[in-house]
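hey all, quick one before standup. I had two proteins in the batch that finished overnight and I want to keep them in one place so we stop losing track of which output belongs to which input. First protein below, input sequence then structure tokens straight from the run.
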Amino acid sequence: MAAPKELDPTVSLAALLGKKLRKHRERLGWTQREVGTRLNYSHNRIAQVELGTDPPTWDMCVALDAALGAGGELTELWEHMVRERARENFPDYVQKFMLLEAKATKIFWYSPQIVPGVMQTEAYARAALRKGLPRASQEEIEEKVAARMSRQQLLRKTPPPFLWTVLDEAVIRRQVGGPHAMYDQLARIAELAESPDATVQVMPFTHGEYAIMGGSLALLSFADSPDVAYLEGVGPGVLEEEPDQVTARSLTYDHARIQALPPDASLTLIKTAMEECYACPRHDPI
């Protein structure tokens, strides 16, 4: 029998995932054929994953991780792989923003229409991406959902960045993904709003016009480097790093925070929307 091909985990994250898969398989003394038989895949498919030539789907990776007792090591690598692949499809300024976001100590978001990605649930993200990318395959959608979910790892750091979010009331009123998905999404926002590391404010319809009514705005602060601002609308986004520009955006954001509902009143409005608009029999009142 030919010796197994040496794997170079430095080539790509797909190759690293393959090497980890082989390590766990050999730890159990299983052949590629035995793994494939247990999970209903061909041994050639398992070989392709190990060689890094054809990475697994999310469902396949979950099954492999569970069957091999990898303790989440394979699925965590898959999320990193998908996130990196997703970054490659974005313009340079978006890739730079995502890298900066992961390093920020404070994140300030304003969103007029949709829940910011770092706060989205899987069901909400899936519905929004499916509508925004009507020609994408289900596999492509699932990869993008996984990439968006992996982006939320920054909120699980120790300590996590402080997150301050101002949402237009349209964000909590517009149903995305159906009532069940929307209820769970608002519950997620409420959970964040009640944590010590986040503040959520809602800009109600009744407060009329305000400083930032167009696209979304993100402000990132760091422990040892200057703040940056990121603006996004219908067209391409803009990453601003010039101090004067960032200061102007910060001032605009501060005006919006002053005009929005206070955090306690915002949380009450979110919970009211949950019960009045999206409460379903499977949920108990909060």
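OK second protein, same deal, sequence then tokens:
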Amino acid sequence: MNQLDRLPSIFISHGSPTFAIDAGRAGPQLAALGQRLPRPAAVLVLSPHWITRGVRVTTSTAPETIHDFGGFPEALYRIEYPAPGSPGHATRALELLDADGWQPAADERRGLDHGAWVPLLHLFPHAQVPVIQVSMPHDLDAAGALRLGRTLAPLAGEGVLIVGSGSITHNLREVRWDNSDPGTSYAGEFVAWARHAVDTHDEAALVDYLQSAPHARRAHPTPDHYLPLPFAFGAADKAAPVQVIDGGMTFGVLAMDSYVFGATAP
């Protein structure tokens, strides 16, 4: 793997589906990251847009591009991300999950939802890297997300790039689609807390975010878009260096920060 013992894991804020056609500040930085990374054998993505009972893993050889959103510009519905699947790596993920008691199931029909293909459109724009998805159990909490990342962590040493795709802040009730200033700093305060937590490898804070983070319930009225963060953190080596990608703030309250856990070049 180009002199790296293991690939890093990444948390990506995927924001609105419009991120696919409006790269903003975050898109070029993800594209640059994709250039710096050793070529993965596959990408494994946890997205909040596939929530199931128990854990499922995609095993399709050619996953479809799912346009799982409504009311957006027509151009978004014409985008295809024709990355191949990787049944071999999916089988390995299923083995790791089963060995750790997750009782996973294979899913031959599931494609790639926008939590997967939208950020990957920037990271690997030519769709040349195989992609598999792991679902988010409906009863997952932050401690469980951390454990799920640790269960799948051996894949990082086998050429698989592990990605948690969510959003560092995600209160859709307060989104300003005209990008006007909402007149509040709560989202920025939560972002600052998250950056400090990942920079200091503060596992306890990341797990107990509802108590340790400012405005946690306002930044995340539901946990689904937060959980990919402890997932990606758990998939990394505990001593891994951390890179913060400052993606700025979109639509008033949707922060676009991403975090890379581990080295990106030899």
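Flagging for whoever picks this up: Residues 9-261 form a domain with the Protocatechuate 4,5-dioxygenase; Chain B fold (CATH 3.40.830.10). The chain has a mean pLDDT of 94.
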